C-alpha cells in the first residue's frame, strides 16, 4: 500500500497514512493492523463510544515512543466528525471533545494513532449524569491478576446483595475493571461517594488484600479499589479498546465464571486477550457489555450493609 491513501466509508472519504509503520514492535503489529482491528470490532465497539466525549491517547510512533492525550478534537478533523462542547471546571474553559459515532470517525481516530480510546462515564448531552459506576482494580506487586479476581468477586457478592448486576472486563493491562450500569438519574457526587464507601467497606473486611487509599506506598501486595474514576473530568479506557502494551492487548469483557476459574486455578494468564482473541470472543459470545447500554439500576442509598 502507498504511504498515503484513502478509503470511502458510507460516502465519507477517510485519509490514511503510514500504514506500514510498526506500532507494536514485539509482534510487528502495524498501523494497518490497528485500523483493521477497529474496523472488525466496530459493531461491538461503536455503541459504547456513541455520544460519549472521547479522549484520544495518541502514539504517533508506536507504543515504545512518547504518547500524548488529546481532549480537544483536532481542528483538522473532517466536517463529518461530530464534537461535543463540554465545560471543563479544572481548565476553566470549554473543550470540544470528539464523538466517535460511526465507522468513518472510528477509522479517522485510529489513523491518528489513537491506539487507546478513553471515554467519559456520561453522555455528551448530559455530562453531569454518569450512566454507570466503575471500580478500577489495580494490583501492587507481588499481587497480580488473581488477587484482582478475588477482589472482583467480593464486589460481585456485595452488589448481588444489593440486587444489582455488575459486569467485568480486563483493563488490558495488569488489572480488572468492574462496572455497574445505572442509566438512571444520578450525579457524580453520588456515584463517587458511593464507590468510595464500598471500597472502604471492603477494605475493612479484607485489610490484608484490599486498599482504598490512593497512596502507592500502601499498595504493595494488595489490590487498590480505585473509586476515584467516578468523576466528571476523568475517563476510563473503553471496552474493546487496544492498550499500548508490549503486545496489542485489548480491554475485553469476561464472564464471572471465567473470573471464578482464575481464582480456583490460580491462572491469570487466561485473562490476557490479543486483538485477534478479542474478536474471536465477540464472535463466540456476542457483546458481553451490551447490558451497560440499557440496563436500568438505581444506586442504593448509603446505609446498612
Folded structure, characterized:
By secondary structure, the chain is α+β, with helices and mostly antiparallel strands. The protein has two domains: 4-119, DNA primase, PRIM domain, CATH 3.90.920.10; 132-293, Alpha-Beta Plaits (2-Layer Sandwich), CATH 3.30.70.3300. The protein contains six helices and 16 strands. The strands form five sheets. It has a six-stranded mixed beta sheet. Strands 6-5-9-15 form a four-stranded antiparallel beta sheet. A hairpin with a 4-residue loop joins strand 3 (22-24) and strand 4. Helix 3 (145-161) packs across helix 5.
List the helices and strands and how they pair.
Blueprint (H helix, E strand, L loop, with lengths): L3 E6 L2 E6 L4 E3 L4 E2 H19 L4 E5 L9 E3 L11 E7 L4 E7 L3 H9 L2 E6 L12 E8 L5 H17 L5 E4 L5 E6 L6 H18 L4 E2 L11 E4 L9 E2 L15 E2 L1 H10 L9 H11 L20
Parallel strand pairs: 13-14
Antiparallel strand pairs: 1-2, 3-4, 5-6, 5-9, 7-8, 9-15, 10-12, 10-14, 11-12, 11-16
Helix pairs in contact: 1-2, 1-6, 3-5
Protein name: Bifunctional non-homologous end joining protein LigD
InterPro entries: LigD_pol_dom, MtLigD_Pol-like, NHEJ_LigD
Organism: Propionispora vibrioides
